[in-house]
Write a structure and sequence with these properties.
Layout (H helix, E strand, L loop, with lengths): L1 H6 L5 H6 L16 H5 L5 H9 L4 H22 L2 H13 L4 H8 L5 H13 L4 H14 L4 H11 L5 H12 L12 H7 L35 E7 L14 E8 L8 H21 L4 E3 L5 H10 L4 E5 L5 H15 L3 E5 L2 H6 L7 H5 L2 H5 L2
Parallel strand pairs: 1-2, 1-4, 2-3, 4-5
Helix pairs in contact: 4-5, 5-11, 9-11, 10-11
The chain binds flavin-adenine dinucleotide (FAD).
Flavin-adenine dinucleotide (FAD) binds next to helix 3, helix 5, helix 9 and helix 11.
Organism: Sphingomonas psychrolutea
Keywords: FAD, Flavoprotein
Cofactor: FAD
């Protein structure tokens, strides 16, 4: 909330004019740095946009609002094409790790800017958006490494690591999101937008054509009806804002959180675990109900928690396509065998926005004023 308060006055024209500059880790005043909080919905897209519109005219803050909505768009896009996620998961499990891959991950490629971004990513859990684009472009087209392994490297280290924004941005750079359009980093662009911090020379000047056919979009499924009466609330790292969930006629009797998704950098696990604990504390301040962090994300600990509290229904904020949703897909049938149902609660924001992500962002962008009511 402090980061949001500090940034809101800067969300207008100043943001749109300066946002593309990567001044380095010591000066991030031209961007919001809100992504780790937005990614876990500790603050929601709607809340951030409402705060910005309270201080700026829509026309002045439009660029910032569009950037916030890119996250919503990517989530909706992936939600309609879950096979892109499962294909990517298979690829990262099976693709060989070459010596070139090891050198890239260690920041030992000899390309100054790339190696510096590798160190920055590992040390801070963050890279500027433009640096992410340059990094991904160098990874794919100069170093000749598979985009999937680069996306996985980012997901491992980014505090804001997001299944949709990360996977689909890497695909966008690789030329798989927009037909025939790859993103090729240019030396003069890096020089200009790093304010002369880097002046690279040796990298690719052409990008091979992307090799994937169109991916068919499935419709967004209707949200299930909300249960009523006594329920347990399960938090996942996908949505840590239980106080703004529409709970209708439900009565929460107990709250639990699934531990952070495993196998990421220690700093990411620490941040995500702290975010989960903070959501449990916030919730405990609002509701006088027991709130616990489960020891493991397996069926046994979830069922043990449910049985201790005699739960027949567990609700959870809808987890979009990604590791948390994969976990819930394993847990739900195991709960059902124990006569407990798991009901996802989808936010009105997602239900309204996601169906518009069937095409490119430009079509989605036109729907933004309607979504935010301006
Ligand atoms: C290869 C690549 C990988 C990326 N991986 C991730 C990721 O794992 N997680 C993630 O949150 N973002 C990812 N992004 C998007 C973007 O780089 C970050 O959201 C942004 O840099 C976060 O910094 P900020 O909060 O200061 O952004 P600001 O410029 O202040 O933007 C405000 C908010 O808008 C959203 N946003 C801005 N740009 C984008 C974008 N291009 N796509 C989606 N949302 C955006 C974020 O929530 C951000 O906090 C990736 C971009 C690229 C090119």
């Amino acid at each position: 909330m402090a980061a949001l308060d500090a940034f809101v006055p800067r969300a207008g024209r100043r943001y749109s004019e300066h946002r593309n500059f990567d001044y380095g880790p010591d000066d991030r005043t031209n961007i919001s740095m809100l992504s780790p909080y937005l990614r876990h919905r500790m603050i929601t897209e709607q809340e951030v946009i409402a705060r910005v519109l309270a201080q700026h005219r829509f026309g002045d803050a439009e660029k910032f609002i569009q950037e916030v909505c890119w996250r919503t768009y990517w989530k909706g896009w992936l939600e309609m094409r879950p096979s892109v996620w499962t294909g990517y998961q298979t690829d990262i499990a099976t693709l060989p790790r070459s010596a070139g891959y090891d050198a890239a991950c260690a920041g030992r490629t000899g390309i100054d800017c790339f190696d510096a971004w590798t160190v920055e990513l590992k040390q801070t859990g963050y890279l500027h958006n433009h640096a992410r684009m340059w990094f991904a472009s160098l990874w794919i087209f100069t170093l000749g490494l598979p985009w999937q392994l680069g996306a996985d490297f980012f997901f491992h280290h980014l505090l804001d690591g997001d299944p949709a924004s990360n996977t689909l941005s890497w695909r966008w750079v690789a030329g798989l999101q927009t037909a025939g359009k790859t993103y090729l980093a240019q030396a003069d662009n890096i020089f200009k937008f790093t304010n002369g911090r880097f002046d690279p020379t040796a990298f690719a000047h052409s990008a091979g054509p992307p090799s994937e056919g169109p991916v068919a979009a499935l419709p967004i499924k209707a949200a299930p009806p909300l249960p009523t009466g006594a329920v347990g609330l399960l938090l996942t790292e996908e949505d840590l804002n239980p106080e703004s969930l529409d709970l209708g006629g439900m009565h929460i009797t107990t709250v639990a959180a699934l531990p952070a998704v495993a196998n990421r950098a220690a700093a990411v696990t620490r941040f995500t675990t702290a975010a989960l604990r903070e959501a449990l504390l916030r919730n405990a301040a609002l509701l006088p109900t027991p709130a616990v962090m489960l020891d493991t994300a397996d069926c046994d600990s979830l069922i043990a928690w449910a049985q201790t509290h005699q739960l027949k229904v567990i609700v959870t904020a809808y987890a979009p396509v990604g590791p948390a949703s994969d976990r819930l897909a394993i847990l739900a049938p195991a709960l059902a065998l124990a006569d407990i149902i798991l009901v996802p609660i989808r936010r009105a924001w997602d239900s309204a926005a996601w169906p518009h992500a069937s095409k490119g962002f430009f079509a989605f962008k036109d729907k933004i004023p309607g979504l935010i009511g301006v």
